[in-house]
Amino acid sequence: MDLSIVIPVYNEVESLPALHEAVHAALKDMKRTWEVIYVDDGSKDGSIGVLEKIAAEDPQHVCVVEFRRNFGQTTAIAAGIDHARGDVITFLDADLQNDPADIPMMLEKLDEGYDVVSGWRKFREDNALTRNLPSHMANWLISNVTGVHLHDYGCTLKAYRREVITGFRLYGEMHRFIPVYANSVGAKILEVPVRHHARKFGKSKYGLERTLKVVLDLIAVQFLTRYSAKPIYLFGGGGILMFLTGFAGIAFLAIRKLLAQVEILTSPIFIISVMLALMGFQAILMGLIAELLVRTYHESQQKPTYTVRRVMRDGKDA
Description:
By secondary structure, the protein is α/β, with parallel strands linked by helices.
């Protein structure tokens, strides 16, 4: 299978027939084998009935995964990845705001040597205050914290080579951080403008409460991508800084006692310094424990600590 299109579905009964027609129209002339994986995320509006009909009418191209209840978009995408057979995996929203007609263009960019092609809703058809403004702020924050600069992390329409997205599990709202994970294994990333349409049916499932979730997940992503292999650098670095700060505070009090005869124990600096020194020592110990856990994780499951793009042997690719 050349291409798998993963589409999370949650209460999109009106959009699904038109969506499948649009996918067919976009891909029918491609000389590639393809499949569409619809993941019904506990819909309550009859979406699963429409998906069953689509699967019966187009069994060659359609796979339907039905959840027992609503688990969220990230989990639906993870299930789609697990059931995908394609060498390239593309994600698409079910609300007709993404345009399937952009997929062939994105595949052409992958053929040029990129590993990830990320959609950018340059002219976004959403509410400027409740959707666009929080999105711009989140994109700026994620880009500057992770160092992977994209205009639109929230755009679901993205295309990936399978090998750059199958080495990790997704939790929370982490589907938007997949480009960051891909970058951590050396993926070549390109962002391209894509079309975006106003919602025709139903209502948005996203609210402002997701902003806090994004911030918390961003902290987790930074830890997993930068320090998962060597957590002692994070815990130990912070621990040493606190320990040295505490030691400097105690040294200051000792010098002041010798020169000015000021009592050490009555100063609040003493309590703060002792606490910092103890916290620093504990942080270093936590780093060592984390190192043991990481080594157990990699060695017990034979997880590699590196990723390979290709191997050349005897003058050719092995």
